[in-house]
Amino acid sequence: MKRRTLTTSLSAALLGLLFKPLTLQAKTYLTVAQAKKILWGDAAMQPVTVELSKAQMKSIHKTSKTRVRSRVLKTWKVGQQGWFIVDSVIGKHENIDVAFALTADGKVKGLEVLVYRETYGHEIRNDKWRAQFHGRDHTEILKLDKQIKNISGATLSCRHITDAVNRLTHTWQQVLSRL
Fold first, then answer.
1. DSSP characters for 30-55?
2. For the whole model, what pTM was predicted?
3. Using one digit for the tens of pLDDT, what is the confidence trace for 40-60?
């Protein structure tokens, strides 16, 4: 083997070891069915197709101070008890799938992280951190480091979950409460 070929081959091999491609790891914590069971027990649920109009999206954005990313909501009506909603938010780079339970009067009953795709920041699954949202509704805009405590190393995930709660409680107030 020629010296140049050997040097090039060894250099390529070493660079390959030094610059390993980042591997994303999606961690599925709960399925939608499991989240339904945790948040609502055995309560009967009916799927409801909710497609927001442009006017509704604009109004929700204005009142919640959070952009509405999707026109179509994945929602289930839980009899007269409230709503079950599956939503996605951006962490730092990847989506986080989250299930939300809202009571009949639009208060947060609970939330569960379904799928977390980021390499760090999974601490948002902590029960104590998620409990900060219980009982919150559309009457106040939640802010990270004000009403909601931040988690160091998970700031963007914390901020975007907080934004999602603001957006969904305002969505309840403007749309779901009328269905």
1. --HHHHHHHHHTT---EEEEEE--HH
2. 0.85
3. 999 999 999 999 999 999 999
